[in-house]
Design brief:
The protein is an alpha/beta fold. 37% of the residues lie in helices and 18% in strands. The chain has helices at residues 3-14, 18-25, 63-75, 86-94, 128-133, 151-168, 193-203, 223-227, 245-256, 268-271, 278-288, and strands at 38-42, 81-84, 102-106, 138-145, 172-183, 186-189, 213-218, 234-237, 261-266. The protein has an eight-stranded parallel barrel with strand order 1-2-3-4-5-7-8-9, surrounded by five helices. Helix 2 (18-25) crosses helix 4. It is globular. The N and C termini lie far apart (44 Å).
Length: 295
């Protein structure tokens, strides 16, 4: 670990109040207006024990390496900010990497990957009060929907409460609804247009108001059908990067040109590209984002 990260640990040990001080002094970036799409790097996977990327089962396990990749990604032109859990956002705060960047707090990480209780997705990270107190720009929640799993009901209820609490503070709720099932004991996402449309229908109705709700959805080939199911702004998620990058990028590019799609929230696909060239992967993804005239 570098001297810089050793100093970070010392600060955490001896001056924990430095985190709140850094948050209070952070220069914030306005949420992008209608002239351009949003581009956010996602880094909340480790908290759900989802550390693998492609054929590297522990790719995200090294915190210094992850922070190096995040800081490089955040430094690239066109990147608006980062989505993460408290441990990650606070590391970035102390390192000064969130200056003039959006910070979106990930809220429910209790449905650990592969666990029997995976779909009873508890809110174990941020809550609306803390997101507001830290001066963050939004809260994100995963909302996996399995009609055959009783854990879905408590997740839906918790997500609805979080949407309402964020809206009461005039803060964006980024809802990621996914229609899922189990195959071979593992949770799998149904990416058929019908399933994605059903997830949209449920996700956009959570909470006492949808005034501050944005949806985070998978990019699929029939994105026009999906977008016909909502009037809410939509961001595309990167997903599990198992396909060839050129296939994934082409799908993102097509989906980004469907009206209502407002940008990208991508993590592992850009932070851990096959050639480990994070800057090139981020720059390529940014080049796919349309201007208002193209959209």
């Amino acid at each position: 670990m570098s001297t810089e990260y050793e100093a970070l640990t010392l600060t955490r040990a001896h001056r924990p109040q430095a985190i709140a001080e850094a948050a209070a002094g952070r220069t914030r970036r306005p949420w992008p207006d209608h002239d351009r799409p949003l581009f956010v790097i996602a880094a909340d996977h480790p908290a759900r024990a989802a550390l693998g990327v492609r054929d590297r089962p522990m790719a995200m396990a090294g915190r210094a390496d992850l922070l190096d990749r995040l800081r490089l990604a955040l430094s690239r032109p066109g990147v608006d900010g980062v989505l993460g859990t408290p441990d990650i956002l606070e590391d970035l705060l102390l390192l000064g990497a969130l200056e003039d960047r959006l910070a979106i707090g990930s809220m429910n990480r209790g449905g650990l990957s592969g666990a029997a209780f995976e779909l009873d997705d508890r809110f174990t990270a941020y809550d609306a009060d803390t997101i507001a107190a830290m001066g963050y720009d939004g809260g994100k929640m995963l909302c996996r929907i399995d009609p055959d799993d009783h854990g879905t009901a408590s997740t839906l209820q918790a997500c609805a409460r979080a949407v309402s609490a964020l809206a009461a503070r005039h803060t964006v709720a980024m809802v990621e609804p996914l229609w899922v099932g189990r195959a071979g004991g593992r949770v799998t996402v149904d990416l058929s247009p019908e399933a994605v449309i059903k997830s949209v229908s449920v996700g956009q109705a959570l909470g006492t108001t949808s005034a501050y709700t944005w949806l985070k959805l998978p990019a699929i080939d029939e994105m026009d059908r999906v977008m016909a199911a909502t009037t809410l702004p939509v961001l595309l998620l990167g997903g599990d990067p198992t396909e060839a990058p050129d296939v994934v990028y082409a799908r993102w590019q097509r989906a980004l040109r469907v009206p209502g799609v407002r940008g990208l929230v991508v993590g592992r696909a850009l932070l851990y590209p096959p050639d480990d060239d994070v800057a090139a992967a981020v720059d390529l993804a940014h080049s796919l984002l349309p201007t208002r005239q193209e959209a």
